Amino acid sequence: MLSGEAGNADSSAESSQEEKAKSSAESSQKARSRGRFIRHLSRARRISLSSQPPVPLPLEPASKLSPSIPETQHSQAAAIFIANNIDILQQILLYLPPKSLLRFQCVSKKWLSIISDPAFRRLHSRFYPTTVGTSSSASAATEALFVFPWTYKKTPQELNFISLSDGYVNPMAKMVSHLNNFFDNGAIVDFHSCNGLLALVFKLDDCDDHREFVVYNPTTCQHRLIPTFNGSKPNDPQLNDPHFNDPYYDPYFDDPHFYHFQITRRFEALNIVFDPSKSDHFKVVYIWRDEYHGDTWDRCGFAVYASETGIWRESMDTLEMDPPDLPTTYFGNGVLWNGDLHWLNDFKYMICFDLDKECLHRDMPPLPVEFSEWEFWYFGECNGCLYVIEVNNPFGLLFDVFEMERDYSKWVLKYHIDLAPLRILYPSMVVEFVDRADRRQCTFGPFGMLFLLEDEKEKKASLVTAFPDKVMLYKINDAVVTEVAEVGPVDFGYGWKSHLNQWKDIYRHMETLAYV
């Protein structure tokens, strides 16, 4: 009897362990399918490509502890004086990073009162040099990047990160885990970031069209739910018919789809704009697309939400595209520069959205590129400059970095990026072949440029590059590669697989005490 009970207990324990193992495997498989596939390297390998073969460089030694300085009565008296002088103490605290200030709130009630004061936080957000779009951002080191994958028809995926510093791996992991599980019944379908604030679009499981807009500060863990935008009706013929004002247009004769006139409005993208050097408040730009069935015509519209008023305002300006599939405008990757929001399309024309007047500026200069058949590789802001990276010589892996003039007069070639040394590690970056006309051709292998970093003081640039199995930080001037993380593929179902080099939303993580 006891033996039978023991046997039953053992079998139940084994089955329980099997169920746990199966559940763990299923959750692991689900996690991998949703994008948890970046493993950061605790001891990153540094490789010099200045000579062949590549020679591994020694790791940077750990920082030595500074010798202790004996305290004197004079230094103690100075510390007491500063601690009791709120004005001096406040000026010192303005130089400290936000994460340190949040920890220092536990020092005393006085420090808690100073750091938690909204006036101090607004002043710190303006003073601390992390503002994108200004030259002050040069002094703020980039420690980590948020990354969000390309998705087919905005399929829900998981937010992830790339840490360029060992000290940021665990904090970033907790941060993205919290955001991925923000709603129990929802997942992220769109993502944007600006100066430390995140804008996330969640698709809830209970309804295909039910989305929640969230603005989140990952430094303070504060968030705000943005109300749903309810604009003009998409099926108003006077508002939506592209031929409404055409006196020579007769829909009965000219439009074979007249009896099937229908316009579908769908969500396109959500961008957040936050410039603490100008305002304590943020704005959210909502982009929608009207698809006119029965004609090759699409139209995009815009609405702006102001955190100061909590109200949506629909822009009277729209962008009509005919045909609708060409060119593709990347509204999901808006870049704040010069006080306005900018997008780039496949024709390498830039579109500027004036945030004050809430209208479009279409007369932007095109990129002066010779290889027009190649898509642009990077579009972003760094150290107060707006950059586009384009192909110069595809066979030699030579790229051009163009900078936009402040007055929007033209794009100027700033410097070249030579990625040829990377072929030592990845020969498949460029695949050469001969076409049917015996012409030498080439195509790029699976790699991508994720982020451009510049050190204005040392006049050096670095590029975060992604390959199918690794993320690397490439110091262009020194030809030194640092392996940052290992990467694995994501299975989207139906045989679709994606690697990190196909991810579209990459934004710098920046600390800020700004209120949302």
TrEMBL record:
Stretches assigned to the F-box domain: 87-123
**One Pfam family from the record:** F-box
SMART domains per record: FBOX
Under InterPro entries, the record lists: F-box-assoc_dom_typ1, F-box-like_dom_sf, F-box_dom, SCF_F-box_component
Top-level lineage group: Eukaryota
Where is region (Disordered) located? 1-38
PROSITE patterns per the UniProt record, alphabetical = FBOX (PS50181)
In terms of PANTHER family, this protein maps to: BNACNNG10540D PROTEIN (PTHR31672)
Protein name stated in the entry? F-box protein At5g07610
What organism is listed for this UniProt entry? Coffea arabica (Arabian coffee)
